[in-house]
């Protein structure tokens, strides 16, 4: 399952920004996988904090083997020791267990997030233990498929902006200019900025001063 966007989004971004239009034309349509289950997406994000993607996927596969499907009920039934045996740290196990408990106890309405605004979703997810604003934004984009997510706290997004627009640094004011320009398709712009940051257009370089990337 991939993030869904159509020509209306790329046409809009191309009209609004000449340089991004060139990037979109060069790269073409981007297939970026998304996670369809919101609870599992949150747990997956917590598991992956401050470790490599490879380590994250190894631990995730072990977790699936241990509990089967990652649901609030199964995580709530598992002990913290059991979660640690698959490679999840003690602190992360606490966060995951607390999240599952809140859902099972009816203290957190996870399904209700889909009815809330972006700002409300960020506020509610960020109130959970182990979830910060960046993680909430990534969950909104890669699970909920919200269309207007451009994260200032994402270093690869900042790198992509420097590369496309030849900036030495991206401060909050400059970032907000691009966020407003891309809206209401900030998420689609994010896909292309991530692609640029990852080397999709080889001749593009990062203009950040040495040691400041």
Question: What is shown here, in short?
Answer:
The protein is mostly helical and 213 residues long.
Strand and helix map with partners:
Layout: H1 7-16, H2 18-27, H3 38-47, H4 53-67, H5 72-77, H6 80-85, H7 90-104, H8 118-126, H9 133-142, H10 155-165, H11 172-182, H12 186-197
Helix pairs in contact: 1-2, 2-12, 3-7, 3-9, 8-9, 10-12
Order of helices and strands: HHHHHHHHHHHH
Number of helical segments? Answer: 12
Strand content: under 5%
**Poorly predicted ranges (pLDDT <50, ≥5 residues)?**
none
Shape: elongated
Helices and strands: which structural class? mainly alpha
Mean pLDDT: 96
CA-based gyration radius: 19 Å
Characterise the protein shown here:
The structure is a single chain. By secondary structure, this protein is an all-alpha fold. It is 59% helix and 0% strand. The chain is built from 12 helices and no strands. Helix 3 packs antiparallel against helix 7 (90-104) and helix 8 crosses helix 9. The longest helix is centred in the N-terminal third of the chain and has 15 residues, at 53-67. The protein is elongated. The protein starts with 6 loop residues before the first helix and ends in a 16-residue tail after the last helix.
List keywords for this structure.
single chain, 213 residues, elongated
